Amino acid sequence: MSVAAFFHLSRPYTVAEIAELAGAAIRDPAAPPETPQVITGVAPLAAGHHGDLCFFVSPRYVKELASCRATACFIRPRHAHLLPEPIVGLLVEDPQRAMTLAAARLFPEALRPESLFRASGVSPGAVVHPEARLEPGVIVDPGAFIGPGAEVGSGTVIGPQAVIGPNVRIGRNCSIGAQASVICSLIGDRVIVHPGARLGQDGFGFARGDKGWVKTPQLGRVIVQDDVEIGANTTIDRGATRDTIVGEGTKIDNLVQIAHNVVIGRFCAIVAQTGVAGSSVIGDYVALGGQCAVAGHLEIGEGAAVAAKSGVMRDVPPGARYGGAPARPLRRFLRAEALLDRIARRDKPDEAI
């Protein structure tokens, strides 16, 4: 069975159509069928059956490929000889990207959260303030709240129990997931906010007082540019005296914390459980691995990459590769780890790693 059981197939595609949209060359099986092969689902190699489309990226999955019974498989030309004879080979240099293109065409509903109520228009169970402005084509699920002065663009879906605060602006063809909250924010077009995400709440700002901590008003906004995706249960605090900004095309995973005044550039990738402290600036095309911690008031240069579980405590130059805690150039970090491991195993040289 296809893994896409919860999503409707847009329509069956022939293998030739799939090859054309992915830019793949076709390697026919030894005994090609008399009628055109049709793709109706996607599946992992081990579960692929007739009608399914799979992809193969690494020789570590040779066993799964040998038992695969899918109709077609994206595969690199140098691995084509590994394909079982009945499977049509779709030869590409990047099978994963090709599979992404194909799956998006086969199951477009899976690209963004749609109405969970499977309805159109504003549900009678939603609360929309009379002063809110919704363009034609907005879908609002039951239990959602849209405050006074809020504006929502056409084609946008507001999920059940989502909260859109006063004067928030949300662009066109966006998706705001169930129980997400968006306040003090300006959202561009084609933005996806997954369920449970929080945008625009207070930043963590306090000053020391005679009797403890004194709360600092957080007066800025959150600005999210076009084509950004924000994962489930991620939090993005509004700025204190300037805006928190997420640049165009950036993808943020689940359970990420972005503090007040942070500026994130375009086309960045920030992986789960990462935390970025206040007023840090992240350049364009930066990648932060899972569970990274970035201290406040730092700058990570354009095109830099930081390995998972790293602690960034100083600026990272553009294009650099950093890792470790504290984070340092990746090669130096790996050499230090190897040296420590050798020292630790001196008394037991034969011990398995």
UniProtKB/TrEMBL annotation:
InterPro entries: Hexapep (IPR001451), Hexapep_transf_CS (IPR018357), LpxD (IPR007691), Trimer_LpxA-like_sf (IPR011004), UDP_GlcNAc_AcTrfase_non-rep (IPR020573). GO terms for cellular component: membrane. Keywords: Acyltransferase, Lipid A biosynthesis, Lipid biosynthesis, Lipid metabolism, Repeat, Transferase. Gene3D superfamilies: Hexapeptide repeat proteins, MurE/MurF, N-terminal domain. The active site is at 260 (proton acceptor). Residues 38-104 form the UDP-3-O-[3-hydroxymyristoyl] glucosamine N-acyltransferase non-repeat region domain. The keyword Kinase does not apply. PROSITE patterns: HEXAPEP_TRANSFERASES (PS00101). GO terms for biological process: lipid A biosynthetic process. NCBIfam families: lipid_A_lpxD, PRK00892.1. Catalyzes the N-acylation of UDP-3-O-acylglucosamine using 3-hydroxyacyl-ACP as the acyl donor. Is involved in the biosynthesis of lipid A, a phosphorylated glycolipid that anchors the lipopolysaccharide to the outer membrane of the cell. PANTHER family: UDP-3-O-ACYLGLUCOSAMINE N-ACYLTRANSFERASE, UDP-3-O-ACYLGLUCOSAMINE N-ACYLTRANSFERASE 1, MITOCHONDRIAL-RELATED. Belongs to the transferase hexapeptide repeat family. LpxD subfamily. This is UDP-3-O-acylglucosamine N-acyltransferase. It comes from Methylocystis parvus. The gene is lpxD.
